[in-house]
Amino acid sequence: MAALFHGVERLFLKHTARWWPCHQPASSLPLVGRVLALRINLPGLTETRQGRCVHSGAVRTSQASTVHRLPFTTVSQQDLDFFEQLLPGRTITDPEVLESNNVDWLKSVRGSSEVLLRPQTTEEVSQILRYCNERRLAVCPQGGNTGLVGGSVPVFDEIILSTSLMNQVLSFDSISGILTCQAGCVLENLSHFLEERDFIMPLDLGAKGSCHIGGNVATNAGGLRLLRYGPLRGTVLGLEAVLAEGKVLNCLAALRKDNTGYDLKQLLIGSEGTLGVITAISIMCPRKPRSVNVAFLGCSSFQQLLDTFQHCRSMLGEVLSAFEFLDSACMRLVEDHLRLANPIKESPFYILIETAGSNAVHDEEKLHNFLEEVMSSSLVTDGTVATEESKIKVLWALRERITEALRHDGYTYKYDISLPVEKIYQLVEDMRGHLGIRAKSVVGYGHVGDGNLHLNIVSPTYDPALLSAIEPYVYEWTAKHHGSISAEHGLGLKKRNYIHYSKPPEAVAVMRNIKAMLDPKGILNPYKTLPDAIPSHVP
Predict the structure, then answer these.
(1) Is the whole model's pTM more than 0.90, yes or no?
(2) DSSP E strands: which ranges in 11-142?
């Protein structure tokens, strides 16, 4: 099957790809039903080819989504010879190997790359980009490929530049806690490395077992520890990156203070591989806490949840590490699809609170006083506390595995929204009222501590009418309430054309100028982050 589609996909690399949604699960369709038409617009000729449909969530908007292939060079045998000489045994053209690199984690976006490059050093990345820039070959940088907005996979036939073999720890200073490593290090591996030395990473994600630290930095990932340790823009002290023309930008400082000129690393953090390929980072790592406690609590209303958050910040203070929430619909999902058990009585809302400190007696006393306060004031209706690592993991699974449960429930429309904390759940309620019975379910969960809502809407199968009802309503609502349409996932391919709901045209124009200066031929991760056009106003 893969070989059949590989031969077919090569036909539509050249000009315009237009996706028409497939409305049924792949398993219920005959072979012909698993294919969608793409219209190729060539000078003087319009021709319809066939391309593969990914049913878990192909790139869709309320209209048929069109992406035009830019005038990049296609890979020739001469190019392959150069890459093979530079990277012997690490220039991959096998379609079966390329299959997983061409598809994102959600199986929602599929590219058609025929070349995968696996450099091991910054110098090799430099030579690759210098050559590709001269030849005008488009490049898609790729880390662990765990992104949720289509930013880490090619759209057409871009060369995939994987950092998977750039996985070495370069240095660690046990006095300052500063770690320097290559960009391809897996987050969980770094965590294990540091824990053996009594430190931890300031970043923790559900995808830690496969995501790369370079990709985390390139997308400015948030995660579960942001409330305690802050964003990557604060903990990343320096980085090394290769620009489109092959120049190495070495800003790999290991200093907490460096006020000499513009802070260039901040341009690359969150740039999603469109300005340069991050090859190494230095990051400040905190000491491993000696005492960790997790409380799982139930609340009768979202207002009570917010009041509990206020008490939590006031009474737990410096030991508060995480404050997460999920609604009752999320709990039903993990119970029904993953067979996880609710440890407390059923509630409209659930809170997961983590404390992390250096003195177990002190931390437990603070947590006890807090729980006594919120229980006696009826802000919390029920709860449980875990101090053992195995039990802590069980409670965290209720929050971390919601995304997995949603994949079992139907077709999911995912939105990563940042809002003023008091407005977080109002969007969920307003969306339920707006959609009514058109949606199977509308659920909300996320990071209360930093105002990040993960809004998920489920239907039995993909429904274009439902999507038209969701978008642009969700973006208009977010802009009206002074939020951001992307809190931590980035814009990638899927959200690039909605940037104007969060940024004014003047800011987007400056971003375009920066892109043009650092990547004048536009070879780095094309079709991502920046919009196709700048509208004069947002509707």
Answers:
(1) no
(2) 16-19, 35-42, 45-52, 65-68, 91-92, 116-117, 139-142
